[in-house]
Amino acid sequence: TQLHDYQKQRLHDFVGEKPSYQVEQSIIAVGSGGFFGKDKEDATQAQMKFLPIASSDFIFAYVVERFGFFGAFLLILLYAALIVHLLLIAAWGQDYYIKVVAGGLSLFFFIYMSVNIAMTIGFAPVVGVPLPMFSYGGSSFVNFMVMFAILENLLAYRFRYLYTDTGKKSFV
Fold first, then answer.
1. pLDDT in tens, 90-101
2. Which residues form the domain of 96?
């Protein structure tokens, strides 16, 4: 097959009876958070470094351990609000290109968020997908910022024809 050894190991850990060490510690962190979470000193999984890569790939497990179910719900609610806002731009936009960019960005956010949360709680294999705009890592953040900047530029200049001398639509 075309898979590398580490990819085969990840798939084996996902379908096997026992999850990998990272996923096991992540599930413990998620379960120990309770409803309102733990203080920083009491968050044993992240504080004692049992949860590997807590600031990037498994940031959701750290958030749930520190802020509990309530914090996880708020984080998912913020992502849902952003996705719905992008979908509204896509649905009610007048320019087809803006619709495509906003819809694609909302799908991108949804897939990244879903895969990261699913792998954190053991419902998907660990693939290293960051939590958008939240995980530690420069390249992911820069990519999301560039995508938002492109969408913002499209939205800002959609009424540029109103400011030309002739008052007619200009495609220049």
1. 998 778 989 999
2. 5-158
